[in-house]
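User: Hello! My lab partner asked me to get a predicted holo structure for this protein. The small molecule is zinc ion, SMILES included with the sequence. Please write out the structure tokens.
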Amino acid sequence: MIRVETIAVCPCGSRAYKEILRADRYCTYGAGVEQLDYSLIECTACGLVRTWPMPEHAEHEPFRDESFLESYRRRPALYEHYLGKTVNDIVRLKPPPARLLDVGANIGTLVELAVKAGYDATGLELNQAGVEYAQGRGLDVRCTTLEDAGFEPESFDVISMSAVAEHVPDLHETFGECKQLLKRGGLLHISNSPNFGGFGARYEKELWYGLQPTGHVWQYTPKTLKDHVRRAGFKVVDVTKYNLHRDFGRGKKERLRRALFTLAERAGLGDAISVGAVKP
Ligand SMILES: [Zn+2]
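Assistant: Hello! Below are the structure tokens for the protein in complex with zinc ion.
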């Protein structure tokens, strides 16, 4: 059933949507089935899926407590592996020397790998503990939002957002700020966002890791992510789909599950997306 709000429900300006998951069936990954006051809705004009209504302070939600950082600190090699691939993608699209800004730098892993790759790299992170950890490793990671960072327009060659674009409530404002801060020909690199069009989302349904309604307020498919990056005035130059790390258990069923995810990734249905886009 199509419903219409009095205000826009989508950054494309549409007021019409379909509810695709009811609040009472909306689950959070790892926490099991949980009663929440949010729905997952799909814009009938552009197909973008989102949490509705927008949770208050959604962008800060996962960054409030230290437990979020603990998962990174416990498995540094895992994150270095994934973010290493991300940095390789960035090198392929906009090689150093170049000035890079990582928005949502977490504990500074991407910034550190970017410095090693030859970039002049700065990170922004809202979690003070993450910033202190990164600064302790000699990295330029600052505790501020993009909006308040005070950078001059056209200061950067690359702006990176890893596992961030699904969190930012003001999607087009954020892309717009990135565009202002990028030089002409500069690269906006969005990476490691859950792929709602991938196999994981279809197969694991409500238990899929990407369904974290208070944190992941946008559920992108490659199509809708490309579409909204274009709407913000960028030219999309690269799209990749791949599986992020997933812990499989033992036994026949888990071996089958692992095989299905591997096949799905090869078929282009990996459950994460990266998009590279250039400021014209
Ligand atoms: Zn829309």
